[in-house]
Amino acid sequence: MIRKADQISYSFNDGGNPAWSYSRWRSFRYCPVSYILKYAILQYPQNLDLGEELRRAKKLKTAGEWMEDMLGASLREASTSAGFSVQEKTELFTKILKRDLNRDCKNIEYGNKLNQLEILEIENGIEKETARFLRKCGELLKAFIETLKSSEIIQEVLCVGNLNIKRIPSPVSFFHEGFTVWCSPDIAWTQSGKHNTLIFRYVHGELPDKYESPVPSMLCGLMLHKLYKAQVERLQAHEFKFDISGDNEVLSRKADAINFSAVTMYIKECSETIRKSPLPQLSELENFHRKDSAKCRRCKFMRFCDELESPFSCV
């Protein structure tokens, strides 16, 4: 529960500019309170225990985020490993993923004080049997990587050589049309004069609207254009989608399909929606509430809400 005395203050700017990312927009649509607690807090509550709980909640990962991170880290490590043929790097990609999967599963099941990894579905009680849930995630990843191994895009990443892989932090920010925009490429590289980005996306039974599907990958392309002066006609943005049902999809957009004007309009429209919304003033509330729904159980900040209804639950 957050009380008046806790006095949380927040801002939606980043370095003086309005901050925007695809994940911020998704978080706002999910629940404005979750959005504020995740992205906009400037000052933690005077209640130190509560402040620590908020920090811990921010570090929670959904199973999808955890699997996306492992796939990206495994591909980056395999692609930058020297002294291997493309075939050997392909097998190395699988070995690294299995190694990291086993390490993380032990960490989640048995705890590791030095590198604590907590999965939202387990912490919020959505998945009651931890070992069974982790096995299901592992089976999904292992099946997906077999699909990836035959992908021409993955083969290209693994053969371009260490010098052609761009060392880009993830997430990374850039300035665009008055906004500080954030995106999270899993890997970026150059090949035959083309500038490429790739992201992995876990889809949890959600249907995208007319813009959302291409937005994350096109943001990564826009980042290459802004930060690395990559010519638009030489950009390619790749997106690998996967879900628990095994319904995988590879989307590759070449320059003629990368519509920066549409993305810019999307950013402005979403930001205006947030700006005009009657966001809850948390410091003026005795507490805020939630509905006990499946949607709320997938929220990183569920523990701060109680069982009552509220206009801010956005269910």
How is this structure best described in words?
The structure is a single chain. With 315 residues, this protein is α+β, with helices and mostly antiparallel strands. It folds into two domains: 151 residues, no CATH class; 105 residues, no CATH class. It contains eleven helices and ten strands. It has a four-stranded mixed β-sheet. Strands 7-8-9-10 form a four-stranded mixed β-sheet. A hairpin with a 2-residue loop joins strand 2 and strand 3. The longest helix is centred in the N-terminal third of the chain and has 25 residues. The radius of gyration is 21 Å and the shape is globular.
Structural class: alpha+beta
Instruction: Enumerate the strands of the largest sheet in spatial order, edge to edge or round the barrel.
Output: 2-3-6-5
The largest pleated sheet is described as: 4 strands, mixed
Rg value:
21 Å
Secondary structure: helix percent: 40-55%
Characterize the overall form.
globular
What's the end-to-end separation, in Å?
A: 19 Å
Average predicted local confidence, pLDDT: 80
In total, the number of strands is: 10
- Count up the domains: 2
Oligomer: single chain
State the helix count: 11
Order of helices and strands: EEEHHEHHHHHHEEEEHEEHH
Low-confidence stretches: 1-10, 207-211, 307-315
Strand content: 15-25%
Ordered list of secondary-structure elements with their pairings:
Elements: E1 9-10, E2 13-14, E3 17-21, H1 22-30, H2 32-40, E4 41-43, H3 48-59, H4 63-79, H5 86-110, H6 120-123, H7 130-149, H8 152-159, E5 172-176, E6 179-183, E7 187-191, E8 194-202, H9 215-227, E9 235-242, E10 249-254, H10 260-276, H11 294-297
Parallel strand pairs: 3-6, 8-9
Antiparallel strand pairs: 1-4, 2-3, 5-6, 7-8, 9-10
Helix pairs in contact: 1-2, 4-5, 5-7
